[in-house]
Amino acid sequence: MKKWFALLLLMISVLVLAACGGKKYEPLAVNEAVDTCVICNMQVKDDAFATQLITKEGKNYKFDDIGCMNEWKKKNGTENIGMEYVRDYNDKEWIEFNKASYVYDETLRTPMAYGVISFKDKASTEAFIKEQGVGTVLTASNLSSHDWKQNTDMMNMDMNGGDSHMDEHMSEDHEGMNSDKEMDKR
């Protein structure tokens, strides 16, 4: 009788621990040959601007710009999201959306001209702002009330012979991510 009771207790403990562990939502690799943004239908580049979210059912959605991911959340709600990921601008590592730090400035070049760039920590955002001379530090919480307007001048420039979304948006030294003043120098 004691053996059965001990076995039953062990089985209950294992089930409780398994249930408490929660479901893990891991980011998927970007495949530039097939991945397109579910909002704007542009190619998702394997770069610092790629974002993704995973629903609680395990469905993965990829985006070419954090603004597109925000648009998806606005249309579909957030209650069914298991996890959201952004990339660190400097090393392209995946970061949980809520743990990242962000820089916003309307003149920052991002694929869909939302001007929001993600970093793994606040120190990196502050260094970027110091280097670029523009930007405001934001948190994931700040982004929930962010305006999310696209810089239409930048979008029009891309369509009229400027750097296009399909071009590389960054080099090793982050050239091309500067303010409009930097772009005018080219």
Automatic annotation (TrEMBL):
Matches recorded under InterPro entries: N2O_reductase_NosL (IPR008719)
Indicate yes or no for the key word Transferase: no
- The question of whether Cytoplasm is a record keyword is answered with no
Which Pfam families does the protein's record reference? NosL
Q: Where along the chain is composition biased (Basic and acidic residues)?
A: 164-186
Specify the domain of life of the species encoding this protein. Answer: Bacteria
Please give the residue ranges the record annotates as the region Disordered.
Answer: 161-186
Cleaved signal peptide residues: 1-18
Alphabetically list the UniProt keywords.
Answer: Signal
Q: What is the protein named?
A: Copper chaperone NosL
